[in-house]
Amino acid sequence: MSTSIKRGNVAGWLMAGPAFFLICLFLILPFFMAIWFSFTDQRLISPNEPEFVGTRNYERLFGMSLLTLDAQTDESGAVKMKDGEPVYPRLRSYTRDKDTYPEYFRKRQWFTIDRSDNRRTFVLASDIVFLKAVKNTLMFVAIVAPVQSGLALLLALLINQKVRGINIFRTIYFMPVVISMVVVSMLWRFIYDGQNGLLNNILGFLSFGYLEPVNWLGNTATALPSIMAMSIWQGVGFFMIIWLSGLQTIPPTLYEASRIEGASGWQTFRYVTWPGLRNTAILVMIVITMQAFTLYPQIAVMTSGGPLDSTQSIVFQMVERGYEKQDISGGSTISVFLFLFVLTISLLQGFLTRKKS
Amino acid sequence: MAGLKLSGIRKSFGKVEVIKGIDLDIEDGEFVVFVGPSGCGKSTLLRLIAGLEDITAGELQIDGKVVNQVEPKERGIAMVFQSYAIFPHMSVRENMGFGLTIRRENKAQIKERVDEAARMLQMEDLLDRRPDQLSGGQRQRVAIGRAVVRSPDVFLFDEPLSNLDAALRMNTRMEISELHKRLGTTMIYVTHDQVEAMTLADKIVVLKDGEVQQYGPPMDLYHYPANRFVAEFIGSPPMNFLTAAVEQQADGQVFASADSIGRVSLPEFNFVKPATMHLGLRPQYISLGEGPDSHHRFEATVGVTERLGSETLINLKAKDGTKVTAVLPEDVELQADQTVIFNFDVNKLRVFAI
Known about the structure:
The complex is a heterodimer of chains A (about 350) and B (about 350).
Chain A: H1 2-37, H2 56-62, E1 64-70, E2 81-82, E3 85-86, H3 92-95, E4 108-114, E5 119-125, H4 128-159, H5 166-178, H6 181-191, H7 198-206, H8 223-247, H9 252-260, H10 265-276, H11 278-293, H12 297-302, H13 314-324, H14 328-352
Antiparallel strand pairs in A: 1-5, 2-3, 4-5
Chain B: E1 4-13, E2 16-26, E3 31-35, H1 42-50, E4 57-62, E5 65-66, E6 77-80, H2 92-96, H3 98-102, H4 107-120, H5 136-149, E7 154-158, H6 166-183, E8 186-191, H7 194-200, E9 203-208, E10 211-216, H8 218-223, H9 228-233, E11 240-248, E12 254-258, E13 262-265, E14 275-281, E15 287-288, E16 296-307, E17 311-318, E18 323-329, E19 339-344, E20 350-353
Helix pairs in contact in B: 4-5
């Protein structure tokens, strides 16, 4: 008896072995290597041995300082003005002077805050591109997660009906999910084209030429929203199917009971459908958030982070540092940050949606 | 309070006709049970009354008004489902007050009515629990409570006891019966269990294949079943059926000759012409021995004996091999394969066309 169990275990391990080995090699090992690299100056190709550098990579990413300056005055003590704006001393005199101002050295202006009495606070950061990537990614998550999940729920409610040919609609809505994001991004580049793009043509046609063509991906104001819209369109079908599976677990008699009690459509949704979707909602929220944080292929194919860094994303920066700039330690640092950040948010979501007894 | 009138009600799902023209008059305050085997259309008929399904043809009146096109909530009905259909995320109190809450009644009044219903159903201690903390019987009580709170004109029950165990089923059955006595509201109850039908109903509707087989008080159906189907369905164990040739003698007396039990006179039978028919005899009417002279006697071989405690079921084999079941007193002792004489009152025989 005991031998058969033992033998069974050996056979089991042999069968699980290859997969287990591959998972270790390509998931678990790189995970720990990335954490280690983020504390070294490891480069992709380099003749020098990597060295331990402590938290220097993190300091470079997040290094920020505040510098408050008084506006320049002329001899009479009046504030110098240029184009209706007070004139401030040149930042370069602070950020390039390592000996006098080591805390500002090599930092660049991220944004400024005007104070009263002609003072201005300059927010300086050592890695502005990264901070922009973080901001853009957060914006992307904050808009895509709720809009995509809401839209997906709406579609799921629409196609959860016993109507002839409903499967055609299900298929149509699900189709973009099957197409690779890279392909979708290529196609949408044509749609968003500034000259003869489909979107500009349609808008021009519908408005009888009133709307001027917009260079959707070439404009800092429209580039990120355009990518958001496309991403929502591409992924909405997947979450629609998840919502749909949640909807179909709600027993039909609950709907019948609420109908007999006289509930309106909205009341039925509020008292029967939505509570029944609780667990699905948690799943959808967490998965959408995590997915949105890893925004990458759209950026790589459509804008490469531009124009003027308006579409930089965390993962895009990660890849660019690690492979384009061959700075593996820098890329690793970003990936560790992303991991901790997403983990925190997921734990927070889990905590906020926990079952209260 | 309201009576119902069903005239020529039909229901088809696609090409399949499930309800094939039903006419019924249900009086105000009556407890009516729809009974029949699964697939007979009894639940569909109830759902048509509730308004959960559209009526294909015919007319449904509740309290004198045609309600074919009326929404369920406007029909003055409340329904209790087999699966309870309690909202899992609401407390018992919220469940019971649901109908009032969505009608935006004021809170004090909701509380009062829920408390009153809870007191009536003796479930005040359950009010603050959640459905997952309740047993099956308690859940069904909540569902009944929710119906009571609506104070409907008609209660509809769709196999409410089917998910409960035997002991609980009996208790809840009695509670429903008491509820009916106390409220005096019209109740329509669907079941496949003839015991429930017999015990609860003022009137039973026996359905088969979407048609009414018989409609009447339970004991009428028991004693005078309209056809072989009703005879077999009502009563336990089921009625015995014996094939016999029915004929009339020159002196006007009607007789049935069966290979199984011999020649029996049928004093009450309304003879039309000689025919082969089925004689129906309830197992309860068969007694051991020769009995009074007016009784008919027959010989049979004893088969399996089943003791239920209060009574004993004996499976018999008549002369020609026809199987007959007899219900005998509790302590009767019969040997297997023994041939014994039994008797029954000929007036208890029922005759059915084949």
